[in-house]
Amino acid sequence: MVDFNIPWKFLSKDWGKTLKFIALGALMLLIPFVGMLAFSGLSIRLISDAIKKKNEIPEVFDDFGENIIKGLKVFALDMLVGLVFLVIFGLLIGGQVAAIIGTGLNSGSDEAVVGAMFAVMMTILPITLGLIIVAAIIMPGLRGNFAKEDKFSALFNFGKAINLVFGNIGAFLTMILIQIVYGLIVSLITGVIGFTGIGFLLIPPLTTLISSKLIGEWYAEVEKK
User: Can you tell me whether residue 168 is helix, strand or coil?
Assistant: First the structure.
């Protein structure tokens, strides 16, 4: 059962390893592109460990090359999903937005232009929100698939990812809610030291530890049912 204490127990088991991961993770992310890929692959490693009920925080730069490869595969998924969403976005509102803007510009009045831009925003926002929700639903399952099976094809098993969510919607919503709460707590804590610039560098490694642990625990729970 995914519960609120899981991330805290994971982080507090060995604060030395936790702080080391956060510091070196921030350093890794400063490496242009390659660092981002390696860190993405490292997040898959964390999910995999959580699925296997391993409770140890890995060394950041262990298996660096392997993590880059995994990160590339996740990047390919993100690009594909992003492209699909872009096409859907264009098909749903492209013509409508163009018509709204055209009407506003043709009217020749500032009020009409402002009204047209407001109408564009009101058209874009719900579609964008809908696509974000879709991504939030499918991405944890897809990453969990990949983390467990270690196969590129597992990243595209959308059917299984969706079934994992709707097969036990309560567990999924609990996992998402816990992530949100921890995210707010992390933002508040790092915001205190954010004026130095250091706080904002620490957010991605810390939130990755939390979210990856939760996704792995959630996946292990619902996948076996």
Answer: coil
